[in-house]
Amino acid sequence: MHKQRLGILIAASVGILISFLPSYSMDGENINAQTWLILVLFSIPLIISLIGKNGEPLSKRMFIVTIISGAVVILLGVFNIWYISSLNKMYKMTEREMQVFKNLDIPISNTEINIEFGLYFMILAAIALVIVSIKTKEKFIHNNNKPQELNLMSSKRCPYCAETINKDAKKCKFCGEFLDDDLRRDKEIYTLK
Predict the structure, then answer these.
(1) What is the pLDDT of residues 89-98, one digit of tens each?
(2) Which fold has domain 3-148?
(3) Measured between alpha carbons, how far is residue 137 from residues 46, 100, 140, 145, 181 in Å?
């Protein structure tokens, strides 16, 4: 399995497990924030990493979907932290401010909401998903000297020995045959003399 697919598989699996951890608690009761949405958003990269050719990195489209999925989880997590912090500030209102809300028939509670470790771990798993996707993609693009990671668009088969060679090669490094017609003619003229 390609490094990129393996990294995405691991990060998405951890994210799925973390989605079942409590995100916040109120009155001693643990609550999971958007569990199903987070589960789906981590499942998308997990499924993407399993489909297609395992030895190759993700296609550009699947790479973008994976990045977007991780970014949405990060944004949801940050929004939840901001929203819970805002609610906690609202609960610390003065008596006069509370009276305004009561006059408007807006129900409010004096209960403080505690952010739990699951929310922070969810954000960390999404960040790891994005970083792994990007870092392993860059290594694939810039590291073409390994034969198993050779870009298929920059290689071709030798017509004489069927080995995979660089598409710009003039001579096959396996069988020694010239692939360029001009070089082949020069070789024939040289051997006739």
Answers:
(1) 766 666 676 6
(2) Butyryl-CoA Dehydrogenase, subunit A; domain 3 (1.20.140)
(3) 16, 55, 5, 15, 37
